[in-house]
Amino acid sequence: MTSFIKELSFRWSDLDPNFHVRHSAYYDFGAQHRIEILESLGLTMKVMQAQHFGPILFREECVFRREIKLSDKIFIHTKTSKMKPDASRWSIVHEFLNEDNKLCATITVDGAWMDTKLRKLASPTPKIASEALNIFPKSENFEGL
Q: Which InterPro entries match (predicted)?
């Protein structure tokens, strides 16, 4: 597997006054896809609550290349682009590709795991989090941190 892939379904509320997908909807789609992937890898919200940790973001950036309209067929491709060996810090990339496989946008997020009791970075990284992120497909230019 080269990335996790999902076809997106747009709603009227995802549009802006110019009739293309509003900038903040991209971030919502990226966040939803990350959570769906983690859930599919066994890292569910219930598990994170029971073990008192969760993902946090330090940076989230979107680069827009082509507008996306309501009826466009768009696929989000998700993979890791950077990660420490223990998965304590990581970067995930979401690419929004149209049906012609042309890049419409790229979201990059940099994150880590937080201990929700201590409200600090989790140390050590919870084993289940490390296992889940190590299953993630890696980008072509993956970089170990």
A: 4-hydroxybenzoyl-CoA_TE (IPR050563), HotDog_dom_sf (IPR029069)
